Write a sequence for this structure.
């Protein structure tokens, strides 16, 4: 039997060595309190901690594990790639394999550039938009998270919201001044910003469906209107599908909306699922814009480990394993689980709304009357109810995202047995939330 070590012991050690004991802030359980679990393995819909406790996982590595943890096809592809060497710093065949799979799913993507994190993808997309248009200003929406690049950290949702930070120290006023932050779902505000600053706006960047202030449904036609307005003013639309891409449908959230409504963004950003758990992200879009990137164009971007062969192998195997059955399972389980959560909370008289965008959902407490349509709504909810709810679920063996501002992630591996465990945990968690 392998030796077990308590999370407390590991956390003490980690805190002495790394800021807050973590390498990404929300992992520190800051808003829910208690000791973060240290995970040592994952298989299918389950993760196991350092003390040998197994949890049904509703984090799925914050999205990448679309086909379930340690999927046999993905592991086999990675093993094969590892045996050939870890990194060559040169082009490899697998890069084009992954690019072709992406383009097969998201038709408007004519060129793709691989990077290693979602932050790099959005950072490059913004630089490219500025280089292409020759303009400086970028519009983002309050509560949308696009990674931790300086210019997009204002009102950023995700960990910035979880830790109740106003933004980030270390971002210069000059940088912040080049970002216009507007309320989400408010087209009149976008029109007004373009009326005033149109000639200087390089791009609007938006999450295809926000999931970092909890989930928020884009109002009907919102993204289409952004496409129309940016085009009319010669600015670019950057659709951030880092979280939604290849998850909400094979063609992401755009596949549920733009593909049917007849619009496409100028640039997409992808991450998470595209690497199946390895550090891969990408930006893609119209060739005319993408070819502004070096070596063809004047906008510089590079990466020692970009297109890493092992990461590419994981991405290719993950997208191939993401069959229609996987999406059908996630869609059905998401509907079943969100209804069960709502029923359990209602049975305890807990005021809430279930926030949805495709197969993504989250709970917002105290918002039954009006739901959550923007960041102000998200911040005004009864966040204090999440902490007891979260810990009750954790004690019952269900690992939820440790923040009310995050979406719950399902996978193709979440089966009846995993669902039964979650459903059995809900009544006690709802009671805890009601207290
Ligand atoms: N964009 C969105 C919509 C995200 O949800 C995230 C991460 O959660 C990012 C960008 C940044 O990606 P990464 O954490 O890989 O830098």
């Amino acid at each position: 039997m392998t030796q077990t070590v308590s999370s407390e012991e590991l956390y003490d050690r980690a805190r002495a060595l790394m800021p807050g004991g973590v390498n990404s802030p929300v992992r520190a359980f800051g808003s829910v309190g208690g000791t973060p679990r240290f995970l040592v393995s994952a298989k299918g819909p389950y993760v196991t901690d350092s003390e040998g406790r197994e949890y049904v996982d509703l984090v799925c590595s914050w999205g990448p594990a679309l086909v379930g943890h340690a999927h046999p096809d993905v592991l086999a592809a990675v093993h094969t790639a590892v045996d050939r060497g870890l990194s060559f710093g040169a082009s490899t065949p697998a890069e084009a394999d992954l690019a072709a799979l992406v383009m097969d799913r998201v038709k408007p993507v004519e060129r793709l550039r691989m990077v290693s994190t979602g932050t790099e993808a959005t950072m490059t997309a913004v630089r490219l938009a500025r280089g292409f248009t020759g303009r400086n200003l970028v519009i983002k929406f309050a509560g949308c998270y696009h990674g931790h690049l300086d210019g997009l950290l204002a009102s950023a949702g995700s960990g910035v919201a979880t830790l109740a930070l106003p933004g980030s120290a270390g971002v210069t006023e000059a940088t912040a001044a080049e970002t216009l932050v507007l309320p989400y779902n408010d087209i009149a505000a976008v029109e007004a910003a373009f009326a005033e600053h149109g000639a200087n706006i390089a791009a609007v960047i938006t999450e295809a469906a926000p999931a970092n202030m909890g989930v928020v449904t884009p109002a009907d036609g919102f993204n289409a209107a952004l496409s129309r307005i940016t085009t009319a003013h010669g600015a670019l639309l950057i659709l951030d599908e880092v979280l939604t891409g290849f998850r909400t449908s094979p063609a992401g959230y755009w596949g549920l909306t733009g593909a049917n409504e007849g619009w496409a963004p100028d640039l997409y950003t992808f991450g998470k699922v595209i690497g199946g758990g390895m550090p891969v992200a990408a930006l893609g879009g119209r060739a005319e814009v993408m070819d502004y990137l070096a070596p063809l164009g004047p906008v510089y971007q590079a990466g020692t480990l970009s297109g890493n062969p092992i990461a590419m192998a994981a991405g290719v195997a993950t997208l191939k394993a993401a069959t229609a059955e996987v999406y059908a399972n996630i869609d059905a389980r998401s509907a079943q689980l969100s209804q069960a959560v709502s029923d359990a909370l209602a049975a305890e008289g807990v005021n809430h709304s279930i926030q949805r965008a495709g197969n993504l959902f989250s709970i917002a407490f105290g918002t039954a009357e009006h739901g959550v349509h923007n960041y102000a709504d998200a911040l005004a909810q009864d966040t204090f109810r999440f902490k007891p709810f979260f810990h009750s679920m954790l004690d019952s063996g269900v690992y939820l995202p440790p923040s009310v501002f995050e979406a719950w992630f399902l996978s193709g591996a979440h089966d009846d047995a995993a669902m039964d465990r979650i459903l059995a945990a809900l009544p006690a968690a709802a009671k805890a939330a009601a207290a």
In short: The longest strand covers residues 201-207. The pocket of pyridoxal-5'-phosphate is lined by residues 62, 117-119, 122, 145-147, 158, 207, 212, 240, 242-243, 271, 281 (CB under 6 Å).
